[in-house]
Write a structure and sequence with these properties.
- It is built from 7 helices and 16 strands.
- It is an alpha+beta fold and 299 residues long.
- It folds into 2 domains: 12-125, Aminotransferase class 4, branched-chain amino acid transferase, N-terminal domain (D-amino Acid Aminotransferase, Chain A, domain 1); 132-289, Alpha-Beta Barrel (D-amino Acid Aminotransferase, Chain A, domain 2).
- Strands 8, 9, 10, 11, 12, 13, 14, 15 and 16 form a 9-stranded mixed sheet that branches.
- Helix 2 packs across helix 3.
């Protein structure tokens, strides 16, 4: 991924209804979102110039806003079209789209009922979250000290900016320790998710994945579950304790950014990316490119 700073790039950003030069997409210092995290966002992938599951992402953006007690003043259809405009304006074939909605600077304080709601959409080339080598070999993860909180304490089903603070802390700690990412448990000590992706375990040929009761039921997660079911691969959604990692032969992550990424280690638990992971990686790649899925080899 390019290290070019994100505040000064060529091209345009859609900002409150119009395409403006990238460097002019500015937010005031006293915006409510900056001080109180009153912002929601989406992450979307572009394949061959087409945004994968665009409307599902836009609908979730609206739902996230409702959970943070504000309404985005553009319809799903208008936001979908704005996302497509940005991709076209940037000339992106394979990349990433980031819509974000936030409360403005009309009020400063916890209460923000009269703030203006803004919407911005940016897009950039981004062919892969992890390097191809890391993805094929499997990544290494560390279990984070930070835990996904009780959904009675946060709007857990929203893709809200503030919920990612502990993800940043977890990923930084993992990277400093030489890992690629972190696995987060929930407040009960159960396996939850990675810092920006859902997790699946192959235990005896059955795919096990945590019940998403305190974290996002990812769009990629749902896509991969559907692909697995089409292969007659059994899916079990349940509470998973970290010691059950010892029973897994394969582990992988799913998410818009990571797509389907194998895991080879989590804090000493080791896994070998195998046939089930491979076929779902290839099926997912086929799905996003609208190709014919590969054939699962006989065991």
């Amino acid at each position: 991924m390019s290290m070019m700073p994100f505040d000064d790039r060529p091209g345009h950003i859609w900002f409150d209804g119009e395409l403006i030069p990238w460097k002019d997409a500015r937010v005031h210092l006293l915006s409510h979102a900056l001080h109180y995290a009153s912002a929601v966002f989406e992450g979307e992938r572009v394949y061959d110039g087409r945004i994968f599951k665009l409307t599902e992402h836009t609908e979730r953006l609206h739902d996230s806003a409702r959970q943070l007690d504000f309404r985005i003043p553009w319809t799903t259809e208008q936001i979908d079209e704005a996302c497509r405009q940005v991709v076209a304006a940037q000339g992106i074939s394979d990349g990433y789209v980031r819509p974000i909605a936030w409360r403005g600077a009309e009020m400063m304080g916890v209460s923000a009922q009269h703030t203006k709601i803004h919407l911005g959409i940016a897009a950039w080339e981004w062919p892969a979250y992890f390097s191809p080598e890391a993805r094929m070999e499997g990544i290494r993860m560390q279990i984070s000290k930070w835990r996904r909180p009780d959904p009675r304490t946060i709007p857990a089903k929203s893709k809200a900016a503030g919920l990612y603070m502990i993800c940043t802390l977890s990923k930084h700690a993992a990277e400093r320790a030489g890992y690629n990412d972190a696995l987060m448990l929930d407040w009960r000590g159960q396996v939850a998710e990675a810092t920006g992706a859902n997790i699946f375990l192959n235990i005896g040929g059955t795919l096990h994945t945590p019940t998403p009761d305190c974290f996002l039921d990812g769009i990629t997660r749902r896509t991969v579950i559907a692909l697995a079911k089409s292969r007659q691969i059994e899916i079990v959604e349940r509470a998973i304790m970290p010691e059950e990692l010892a029973d897994a032969s394969e582990v992988f992550l799913t998410g818009t950014a990571v797509e389907v990424t194998p895991v080879r280690e989590i804090d000493g638990y080791r896994f070998t990316p195998g046939e089930l992971t491979r076929v779902l990686m290839e099926d997912y790649d086929a799905e996003v490119h609208r190709e014919v899925p590969v054939t699962l080899n006989a065991a």
